[in-house]
Amino acid sequence: MDKKQEFLKKMLATFRMEAEENIDALSAYLIELEKNPDESRKSELIEVIYRSAHSLKGASRAVNLSEIESICHSFEDVMSAVKNDEIKFNSQVFDILHKTVNLITELMNQLEVEIDTELSSRVLSHIEDLSMVEVGLEVENISTNNIKEVVVKPENPKPATQNPKPATQNPKPETRNPQPQTPNPKPKTRNPKPQTPKQTIRVSTNKLDNLLFQAEEMLSLKLSGIQRTKNLQKILGKFSVWNKEVLSVLTSTNSIKRLLDKKETGNQISINKKDISEVVQFYEWANSYIKEIEKDVNALRNFTHQEVYTTGAKIETLLEDVKDLITVPMSTLLDVFPKMIRDIAKDLGKEVELIIEGDNIEIDRRILEKLRTPLIHILRNSIDYGIEIPEIRSNSNKNTTGTISLKVEQLENNKIEILISDDGAGIDLKKLKQLYIKNENISDNDIDSITDADCINYIFRSGISTSGIVTDLSGRGLGLAIVLETVEQLNGTIDVETEKGKSTTFRILLPTSIVTFRGILLEVSGREFVVPTSKVSRVLRLHNNEINTIKNKATISFNGEIIPVASLSEILELDKQSNSSGYVHIIVIEIKGKQVGFVIDRFIEEQEVLVKNFNKQLTRIRNISGATVLGSGKVVPVLNISDLFKSSLKSTGTVSRLSDNAKPDELVQQSILVVEDSITSRTLLKNILEAANYKVTTAIDGLEGFTKLKEGNFNAVVSDVEMPRMNGFELTAKIRADKKHAELPVILVTSLSKREDKEKGIDVGASAYIVKSSFDQSNLLEILERLI
Amino acid sequence: MKNDKKTILKQRADKLSISLEKKVVSGEQIKVLEFLLSTEKYAIDSTYINEVISISEITPLPCTPDFIVGIINLRGKIISVMDIKKFLSISGADTANIKKVIIVKHSDIELGIIADEILGNSIIQLNEIQTKVTSITDVNKNFITGVTNKKLIVLDIKELLLSEKIIINEEI
Question: Model's pTM, two decimal places?
């Protein structure tokens, strides 16, 4: 490519960026203007739209895009006429202006290729339309510009409200031109949102992504540091074996030494005395030498530990900062929605208003990108199924214009909540139930046991649609399945609520950033894989004969529930490892209240993992969602939980074996509730317990603790004594008074070391009382182990 | 490692020198990297090669076609590694121990290609390449430019990287 071409290409890229901003602004402001705001805002908006069109015109001229330039020019003329009160807005003007924006977008998509004749003829006729509008003429049949819109616009008989003197305005063009250079009194109104003066630079997302990759790599450095410390610890362990052995021969060595020290020479010994003496000397030297090495290794271990700690903290900060760099406000995605909703609704002959709240909340750009499709699916569904056509709405005493609201809210724990609700017809649960029964072959006896929740969750299954017909928007029954999958891949959850005839609300909970999560490292057919801990409800070790076969499917029964079981190696198409131990390891995974068990080789450990996406060649792999890099540098695939679920339905379940009365013993993940008002102590306790493989839930005082206790299932409570609202003694007494928890182990950890306090603790029924000054982790863990 | 650096440096030097050479020699030619995969010699247009790396372990990936050898961590990015021989269904012995991965890139697609040994750079005259080779099947002939008289299989790497056939996109 020669230099000139290259230069042009660069220019085009810059233009595209600028143009996209302008186009987004244009459509957003047009929408706002259409809502008929008060006069001052109105003139402000007109000014802003005018200026956006103007700068887009200038930019396109600079890169020789004459089509865009001339459209913008006409657009600008219309806006200028509006500004000067020569014409008034009506719905036709809005339609044509929106269409202008569409047309520019279309042209933008063809930047690098020759514009086809069909498009350029449309451009020409559109420019004519614009100039008609500009002089206040009614344009006939504007729909020829855009095939999609032929159907709509049946009524609108009111004649143009403009001044009835179209021809006299023609001489104006010359005088209009100089205006752009001398823009009106408010030059800084380009962006009407409250603006704090911030210094910003434009950085390509590519560069930011690279930065993020590097920063994430640092994290694996930290993980590998932890691994090194463990290695050193292991070596130190070997020294202690040596020391123990030395001790065990200490008496023998001493007696040999004493023998050698004796002046008189015994007959037998004298022969080898010199040899023995040398060996003993060597032994003593070796012993002290090893001691020295041990000291060095010990120092190295401590140093490494310290280093991991400090660099770890720095890396975390760095990663936080980088993460912050790639967060963007939700509005970068949501700004285009009002226009999209308007267009879709128009196509369907419906009237819909979209209300967006909380779009200033910031979120990881990668999450936002993935949210686009799910949100569009949900919104389309709302328009297509939810919002009724105006006649039906007015018949049921609703405002003819339907409302869809999209609310974003920042929650605690780095989560955001997105609520999308419409005031439409709601989801037809009856129809859904019929579908459910029909498709899932539910027997008549079981029909009554189907809950509304079962039915409503069923809409997330692919192939399910209550719509009789398939439109190009929805009805194919794929949409919500994709929505669910995407949301789950982002480690989020989604729920629906509906009230017949009134509303449907989708509630999406998402993390604000993707960095790390807790994952379980496990082995299947000799290979390692990771599953997100949050999706695993249990890890079990069962005897072979505890697996039952029901209807040709392998199952286990646990806590009275029947859980289907599938072989993970079979699902992953791996060779089956022979297993002669008589035991099987099973991880039980839960999605939307359904559980499935998967047979694995063994559970390795739980650790912090960072999921990385695959490259383009691996666009979508069955059953695998990405990969992570372990501390050792090893790359390990991360399993896709929703895929595993689907695969398990197809799996034949060959792990079957007949037996009854299964009594599984739970292996890991006892659940502990930590109640502590100091954040430092709380985090410390949490870390200690999690490191010991407990699942930890925290509460900030007795009251919250007691509430959480009722919500969840816990094996023990660890609580502070002095806390606001409800202290540890009161909490313990309350727990003991509760029938369900009367036997629950409660450990009080406190700085109150007075004997009376300890007695009081025992009085209220605490199972153990640890004084903080004598507190060390092994103490707590030991007590926990004994109590649970 | 040392060898790699040399290869990389040499590649860089070669890339820089290419414009000069072009002026000197007439006739259409391409600059390639030659490598060995089990018993055959292959060549890839150097323009598409980013780097060559040594690798001790490639993580195999279940539920993928057999031409996907697995995945590696390339400075924080997860990159798939493929076996050209399997992809083109060229018969012959399997590769026992992979030592090198050639990282190739074109527009937004970047991937690794396994090699037993890197043989070095060379220049191939396009008119020396035989395009009609009996052993090449219809399935893969798009991806092979031809074979030289030294039995070097010249891959059309651009065609390969642009092909939908190498992309894995499977739902359950």
Answer: 0.52
